[in-house]
Amino acid sequence: MSPSLLISLFSFLVLFSVSNAATKPRAFIFPIKKESTTLQYYTTIQIGANSTSLDVVIDLGGKFLWFNSAEYFAAATTYRPIRCGTKLCQISNGVGCVFCFLSPPVPGCTNNTCSDYAHNPFTGTLGYSGLGEDTLHVQATNGAKYVSPHFPFQFSDPVLKEGLAPGTQGLIGLGRTNIALQAQLASRFKIPQKFALCISSSGDGNIIIGGGPYKAPFQEISKSLISTPLIKNPVETYPTEKVGNSSVEYFINVKSIIVGNKTLLLNTTLLSFDKNGNGGTNLRTVRPYTILHRSIFRALVNEFVKEAAAIYNIKRVASVAPFGACFDSKTIANSKTGPVVPTIDLVLQSKKVYWRFYGENSMVKVNNDVLCLGFVDGGLDPVTSISIGGHQLENYVLEFDVTSSMLLFSPSIPSILPSGTSCSQFKA
Ligand SMILES: *[C@@H]1O[C@H](CO)[C@@H](O)[C@H](O)[C@H]1NC(C)=O
Ligand SMILES: *[C@@H]1O[C@H](CO)[C@@H](O)[C@H](O)[C@H]1NC(C)=O
Ligand SMILES: *[C@@H]1O[C@H](CO)[C@@H](O)[C@H](O)[C@H]1NC(C)=O
Ligand SMILES: *[C@@H]1O[C@H](CO)[C@@H](O)[C@H](O)[C@H]1NC(C)=O
Ligand SMILES: CC(=O)N[C@H]1CO[C@H](CO)[C@@H](O)[C@@H]1O
After folding, report:
1. Cα-to-centroid distance, 267 and ligand 4 (Å)
2. At residue 373, what are phi and psi to the nearest 5 degrees?
3. Co-location of 89 and 183 in the same domain
4. What separation in Å is there between the alpha carbon of 72 and the centre of ligand 1?
5. Strand 316-317 and strand 338-339: pairing?
6. pTM of the predicted model, to two decimals?
7. How far is CA 114 from the centre of its chain?
8. Which segment of the chain is annotated as a signal peptide (predicted)?
9. 178 and 283: one domain?
10. Contact, 211 vs 141, CB < 8 A?
């Protein structure tokens, strides 16, 4: 590290602790929106000298923030590359050092720069480039604004944005890394490294970083939260990492699946990790519907169809892709937890601990006449056997306590809070 860099870092730290000493924030809030054509969730961040506002896709399994934006580029006067060998480079845990010689240097092309692969989870594309830092402007839950200086990210090649929701400029990672959004805010502001996600069925909601207590109508929710360990895959599933490094993604230990009151007969080998890291269950905001290994998918669809007909007199109709079972909506009753259909329970560490999906989360309206079971076939060879996707993540408070490696999840919001309560009201 050069002497001049040391000096500027120190003066920044001093200024920073003075300006925020009196009002240490408790938690931060980020809005969630859902883009209607891609069903991707995104949030809005403000970054750089001009507080450029950027919409970025939310990825629970993403390592860091990456984006490309002409508007940011034009006002990037406070952008600084993260130099190889620096502390920030070290905690970024990237891959290699890039040498890029544009004069003057610009975001995305700087010399002697700590680098890593940004991952686009929709196309599978990786973008190798230098990492940089700039000021992230954040809003605390009490409305006050703060800055998080030296926020690390990658100014990526524009090509990497292919497949992202229209209007979005990149992706923000909430994975288990030191430079994910919640990790950076936790370390800057000395708040707990936990974040809660609550997304309504219309796709609006909030991410709260730092924990509760939450505001009405969610003030009692903490008492209802059910906890399950977030487990680590001993083999990294992130495309550029290797054996031996803790996983970026969040996995939970699903031990069985119950439809109605019938436990599915599953090949339980698929529910744990094999020596290559295949198997298990993760949570993925970048998939619209839960994806299941084909054998699990078939077992679920068969039992669901059987019970829907036998117990609820629901009429099956032709399937609509990508779903495996669809039904005549006129034959399905409605309730505050959505269409009245067999419940689906993911049973966790013990029989008493399960994540229950009611019709609101299990069924997808494809048109006025047809509702489909909102799970999709992941084929015979998915890396992860169960990837819980967006439609199933909506209408729950999901609190990720990264430090203690626990997921705390609420029962479905409509099942416990008065009707009309929605995750769009989730505040702290
Ligand atoms: C900074 O933001 C303002 C207001 O959005 C805008 O008018 C101005 O052009 C921006 N400056 C640069 C250098 O992009
Ligand atoms: C790039 O960085 C390397 C390593 O610090 C240095 O040796 C080299 O002179 C630099 N090149 C330019 C053009 O700045
Ligand atoms: C399972 O559900 C069926 C149909 O609702 C019911 O007849 C049966 O008693 C239930 N079995 C148990 C063990 O709850
Ligand atoms: C269970 O799944 C594992 C992993 O895919 C496979 O090797 C094994 O043959 C399966 N067992 C049965 C009984 O299908
Ligand atoms: C096996 C492997 O890839 N290990 C890497 C895990 O990450 C550390 C940095 O945190 C590397 O030094 C190891 O090589």
Report:
1. 6
2. -70, 120
3. yes
4. 9
5. unpaired
6. 0.91
7. 25
8. 1-21
9. no
10. no
